[in-house]
Protein 1
Amino acid sequence: MEDRFSVYAPTLGMKTRRFSTDEVRQIRETYAAGKATLDTLAKKHGCSTQMIWRLVSGDKYKDAPGPLTVVHRRRTVRPRAQKAAPPKSVEIKVGSTVKLRSGGPGMTAVQVDDTTICAAWFDAAGRNHVGAFPVNAVEVVS
C-alpha cells in the first residue's frame, strides 16, 4: 500500500486532501526548482497555500521524499543543491593586493590566516586604514 499524507485546512472550509508520496516529492521538486509558486501549486492540487508551504518546508511531513525548503526570518532559502558553486579561491599572501568582493578600494594584505585577512588601505583623502575581513569576502586583484 502506498504511503499517503492527509492535509486539512479548516479555516478555508476545505475538505481533507490526501497526497501520495509521489505527489509530495513532485510538489517539493517543482517548488525547489522555482518552476511554480505556492499559489500555483495550491490551485493545481486543490488545497491551501499554507498546506503546500507545510509540504515544501517539511513542517509536518519530514519523512516524505523530495528537497525541503528552509526559512530564515522573512527570506526563503532554496535547498543547498540549488546554490551556485563558491568562487575559486586564490591563495592570498602577505603583500597581495586585494579588494572586497562587494567593491571598494584596493588593499594590501598585511596578515593572513585560514579564516581572516588583515588589510591596509588609503582613502581618497590619503588617510591610512586597517581592517580585518573574512577571507571569503575578499578577492585578489590581478
Protein 2
Amino acid sequence: MATREGQAIRIALIIFAIIVVVLIGVCVYFSNGARALETDKATLQQEKKRLADKSETYMKENMKLRTFLGYKIDEKLETIQVEFNKNMLCYDESVPTTFEELNYRKLPKYYQTKLKELKGDLKNQQAQHTVLLAQKDATIKAEQGKLAKLIIERDTDIASIKDTLVLQGTKVKDQDLKIESVTTDIQETTRKHNEKLRELNDRLATAMTTLDKADRTINELKRKNRALRPENDILAKADGKIIRINSSRGRVTINLGSKHGLRRQTTFSVYDADVSNVATGAVKAKVEITQVDSTSSEARILNETIEDPILAGDQVYTVGWQPGQKLHFALAGDMDIDGDGRCDQKRLRNMIESVGSVVDGYVDGEGNTSGRVTNMTSYLIIGERPTEKSKGAAREAFTEFAMTASDNAVEQIQAERFIQLMGWEMGEQTITSGSSTPSTKTPPGVAPKSTGSTSGAFRKRTPAGSGR
C-alpha cells in the first residue's frame, strides 16, 4: 500500500512538473510576443515620423516652387496649369496648342528657331528688293535713253524742215505724240516700281518689328529661365562618363567621340558617378583627350590621387564644350591664368577655339576690341575689371560688353571659375601618387610623369609620346 501511495505521489509530482514547464513556456512565448509587438510598434512609429518628415519636405519644396513661379504658396495646381497654357500662347499664335513638350526652359530654343526662319525670310526679301531696284534703275535708264534719242530726232527734224514748216507740221506733231507716249510709259513704269518698292519696304519694316519682338521675348525667357535655376547652377549636367581604365599607361576611355564634335587636347574634370550637380561637385581628377574615335576617345590622366582613384562610371565635364553643339563665348578684361603677372586672354581664346567653340568677341585690358556680344553668345567670361587708372577706352569697352551681355541675358562667369569648370589647371599640372603631395610638376601642355612608390593597383604610367 505504501509503495502504491509513493508511486501515486511521484506520478503527481511529474504531472505537476510538466504543468509548470508548460506554464513557463506559455509565459515566455507571450512575453516574447509582447516584446516583438512593442518593437514593431516602435518601428511603425519611426516609419510614420519619417514619412511625415518626408511629406513636410515635399510640401515645403512645392511651396518654394510656387514662389519661384510667382504664385502664392496655396495656389491651386489647376490655376498654375491654366496660367502656364496662357503663357505658352501669349508670345506667338504659332506656338503648338499641346504643351507636353514645351516648358519655360525649352521655349527660348523654339523662338530661336523661329528667329532664324524670320531672318532667312528677311534675307530673301532684301535680295528681291535689291533685284527690283536694279531692274528699276535699268528700265529708267533705258527709257531715258529712248527719250533722249527721240528728242534729238525731233530737234534734227525741226532744223531740217524750217523752210517747209507747214508741210512738215504733221510729222512734227507725230513726233511730239510719240515722245508724249514714251514719257507716259516711263511714268507708268516708274509708278509701278515705286509701288513695288513701297510694298517691299512695308514688308521689311514688319519683318524687322517681328525680329525685335522675338529678340525681346527670347531675352525675357532667358532671364526667367535663369531666375528659376539654383544659384551658381551652370550647365550642371555631365557631358559623358569613363567606360574603361588602363592604369599601367595612365589612360582612360570616355563615351564621347568625333560623332559628338569632340577634339584632341580637350580637357575634362572627373567627378564621382553619384554626383548630381557637377558644377558644384568635388573634382577628383582631370584628363586630356589624346585620341578621338567615332563614339569614344582615349584620354591621359593629368592628375589623380590613390585615395580617390578614377573608376569606371565616373562622370566627365567641361564648361567650354557640349556634345553636338558649338558654344559661343565673349571675353572682357585682363586674364592672368598662370600667375606670371601677364595677360593670357589670347591664350584663353585659343584654348576655347581649340575644342571647337566660337569666340564672338573680346575686349582686352588696353581697350582693344574685336567682335561683339550677341544674343547667341553662351557666356561672357569676366577678367580683371579696368580701374580708374586704366585707359578710358578700356573702361568704356568693358562696360559696353557687360551691359550688352545683361541686355541679351547672356550668362556672365569669372575667368578663374571658367578655367576651373573647363578642366584646366591654374598654373602647373600635377599627378599625385600615394599621398596628396604632387610627385611631378610640369607646365600646361607638357605630358606629366609619375614617380615615387607605387602599389600593385597603380603601376608606372608612361608619358604621352613615349611609344608605349
